Amino acid sequence: MNDKTFKKVYKEAKEALEGVLFDGMVVMSGGFGLCGLPENLILALRDSRVKNLTVISNNAGTEGQGLGLLLETKQIKKAISSYVGENKLFEKQYLSGEIELEFNPQGTLAERVRAGGAGIPAFFTATGVGTLVSEDKTHQSFKGKEYIMETGLTADLSIVKAWKGDKSGNLIYRKTARNFNPVMATAGKVTIAEVEELCEVGELDPDYIHTPGIYVNRILEGKDYSKAIENLTLSEE
Amino acid sequence: MSWTREKMCERASKELEDGFYVNLGIGMPTLVANYISEKNNVTLQSENGMLGMGPFPKKGEEDPDLINAGKQTITSLPDSSFFSSADSFSMIRGGHIDLSILGAMQVSESGDLANWMIPGKMVKGMGGAMDLVAGVKKVLVLMDHNAKDGSPKIVNKCSLPLTGKEVVDLIITNLGVFEVDKGIKVLEIAPDITKQELINNTEADLVFS
Predict the structure, then answer these.
(1) What's the pLDDT at B209?
(2) Could you tell me which residue, B96 or A236, shows the higher pLDDT?
């Protein structure tokens, strides 16, 4: 078996984070609400006590769940998110000035990460024109319509969650647990993926790979997924 | 008599044309899905990365990997597809979605929309609302005609921070249906509501046809 593939495989999250963490670093985390979260890596990040983090993630988790865990230990200095509505602790730390917050429209956030991973330093979008989001940003008109410039985003570390992965880092996501994970996998200087099922090379059909292994530096099989449901809604019958 | 929430949602569903791809916002707009008939062939988009949103699951069939943008458990349909957040907003920003229905705090006579922030209160974030109103072909606002304190929500100029500038096409409230086109045109009035009542409850000038 090709030796390089096995160099990516780590037994557990703590081991996978070794040598990549430093105080003040920028971390991207995949997930939408509590769906598709790299649960094992977030726990290991908490246990590492690395601090003054800038965290780029669509949401800030809920209390005791997801990135909410890093709020309890006050490891986050700044958050770049589109929606933080479900987290009272975040609200408290924000109002007391302990944590800095930069709101990005959700599509702008996704595209900034996509651009960052694709080597595109900036792009123009109509999203946010005429709103607080456009303040201090470069405006330009194309074909008579006004756009603002947004910059690409990269991170020192991206942590993502996939359904299946192989030992060379190829990833397949499941249903809406895909969300921000594929773009964030492309935008980390180091990207670590945790998967529910780690497969041998050759077990996954190359036609169905969502994230090619080139983007994944380290991979581990996660355990004890809580996969919490934030808003259980059932049909009436 | 003003329209009930059910009547408002039913009226909003009439804007869903055959073959439309539609994004429904969180709250009352989500309920519009209850009035989509199968022959309408409407596909619902959820901005967290799904086309072809099905109904809520039966008890025991919920899947934590399958949620909508309101983080509610949902189901998929035979023609559903899943994709990343970047792809999702490419179809939104790129003008591929036909209609977006969302709630509002204020709409101005030029179609400015405010629905994400009240200064001085904790701000939760705009989520995907700014992208939707900037990119989707037609924007429908579904809201109560007046705020809880009775103040008008259709105003000359929004006093709250904007979600988008000149983006709203149609407004459906408990009092009527309004088109935003160089002013607020009254298309329909709820039963037993008089023109004067409508004028009294609206700050912006109304154009009656």
Answers:
(1) 83
(2) B96
Average pLDDT over residues A34-54: 97
Domains of chain A: 3-12+22-121+153-221 (3.40.1080.10)
Residue A92: its pLDDT value, please? 87
d(CA A71, CA A89): 7
Q: Which of A28, A91, A127, A236 to mutate to test the interface with B (most CBs of B within 10 A)?
A: A127
- Neighbouring-strand partners of residue B138: B99
- The pLDDT, as a whole number, for residue B122 is 80
Reference B134, options B172, B95, B106, B90; nearest CA is: B95
Q: In B94-190, which ranges are continuous DSSP H helix?
A: 129-135
What's the CA angle centered on B167, arms B166 and B168, to 5 degrees?
Answer: 110
Predicted local confidence at residue A5, as pLDDT: 57
ipTM, two decimals, is 0.96
Classify B92 as helix, strand or coil: helix
Cβ atoms A96, B138 nearer than 8 A: no
* Domains in chain B: boundaries: 5-208
To the nearest whole Å, the CA of B197 is away from the closest chain A CA by 32
Output the pLDDT for position A85: 84
**Distance (Å, whole) CA B103 – CA B129:** 10
Q: What is the pLDDT at residue B103?
A: 97
Q: List, as ranges, residues 141-200 from B with C-beta within 8 Å of A.
A: 161-166
CATH number for region B5-208? 3.40.1080.10
Distance of alpha carbon A119 from alpha carbon B202, whole angstroms: 49
In this prediction, residue B123 carries a pLDDT of: 86
**Cβ–Cβ contacts within 10 Å for residue A142, how many?**
9
pTM to 2 decimals?
A: 0.96
**Inter-chain CB proximity A179 and B125 less than 8 Å:** no
Whether B42 contacts B119, CB under 8 Å: no
Query: Does the beta carbon of B24 lie under 8 angstroms from any beta carbon of chain A?
Result: no
Gap between the terminal Cα atoms of chain A: 53
B165: exposed, middle or buried (Cβ count in 10 Å: 0-12, 13-18, 19+): buried
Contact assignment for B73 to A131 by CB distance below 8 Å: no
Residue B30 CB-density burial (10 A; 0-12 exposed, 13-18 middle, 19+ buried): buried
Task: Give A22 to chain B, closest Cα distance, Å.
Answer: 28
Q: Using CA atoms, how far apart are residues B36 and B77, in angstroms rounded to an integer?
A: 15
Q: Which of A3-7, A80-84, A105-109 has the lowest mean pLDDT?
A: A3-7
3-class secondary-structure state, position B149: coil
Bridge partners, residue A26, by sequence:
A54
Query: Least CA distance to B54: which residue of chain A?
Result: A235
